[in-house]
Amino acid sequence: MAYEINQTLPRSFGRLKSGERSTISILASYLRGALASLLPRYGLLLAFLALWQVSSTEGWVNPAVFPPLNTILSALWTNLANGALLDDIAISLQRSGTAFAFAVVIGIPLGLFMGQVRAVEHALDPILQLFRQTSALALYPVFILLLGLGETSKIFVIFWATLFPVLLATIGGVKEVDQKLIEMARTYGAGSLTIFRRVILPASVPAIFVGLRLSATTALLLLIAAEMIGANKGIGFQVMNAQYNFQIPLMFGAILLLAFLGLAANALLVLLQRRLCRWSQPNA
């Protein structure tokens, strides 16, 4: 009996060690696969961040101008934890969100209408192209003169810049709908409203989402400029205020926060597009 126990225990330990080796092998394989998929996409970004950290800590660049990343993240976390940046985030999201919502509500219906009625598009296209090529920042002083140095002018300049990407993308999406699909629907007796709901609108959705993603990015870009003039709240104001007071880590932290907000908005729109357009998978 003792001999059998002595023979069984080594086999049991062997099976345990074999199971551990199998688990380690699976984990190693998973890590190799994760690295193989992440490095081609994020390797250059990680290298840039590592270079920033090393060059600042080693004194290759002036750390007063380019602080180490850990100092920037520490300043950002401190101001988030004590609530100093929370009000700024809220007011910035309110400004950009309001302008973006107005751009969507006006741009998409107008784009769908102009894309279908060619006479209206030909009549409005020259003035749209003129306004589109005019920088919203160049018009900001005009908006301030007309609307005052308050919330209205800030929201309007963001709206002005975000309107054109979604409007033009919607027009382009409608014009690129395959005419054979429309003719086929008419052959089967579909009316104009049915063709619009079942053919034109679904086929235009991918292009519309491209415009939405461009508009969301533009809204955050214009937000900074709008909040740098005549504002006392907002992330853009914090960027300028930190620069004036030489709080460079906080300045970079606010810039990093804006980048995170932009990435979050883009990821949300990509997720929504994937749910609505399962036949068209966008690249984030």
Automatic annotation (TrEMBL):
One GO BP annotation of this record: alkanesulfonate transmembrane transport
Entry protein name? Sulfonate transport system permease protein
Tell me which species this is from: Rhizobium leguminosarum
Output the superkingdom of the source species.
Bacteria
Task: State the UniProt keywords alphabetically.
Answer: Cell membrane, Membrane, Transmembrane, Transmembrane helix, Transport
Q: What does this protein do?
A: Probably part of an ABC transporter complex. Probably responsible for the translocation of the substrate across the membrane.
Span-the-membrane segments of this chain are: 30-52, 99-118, 130-149, 155-174, 195-226, 246-272
Q: What is the lineage of its organism?
A: Bacteria, Pseudomonadati, Pseudomonadota, Alphaproteobacteria, Hyphomicrobiales
Q: How does it sit in the membrane?
A: Multi-pass membrane protein
What Pfam family is a match, any one?
A: BPD_transp_1
Q: Which InterPro entries match?
A: MetI-like, MetI-like_sf
Protein location: Cell membrane
Q: Which family does it belong to?
A: Belongs to the binding-protein-dependent transport system permease family.
List each copy of the ABC transmembrane type-1 domain by range: 89-273
Cellular component annotations (GO), alphabetically ordered: plasma membrane
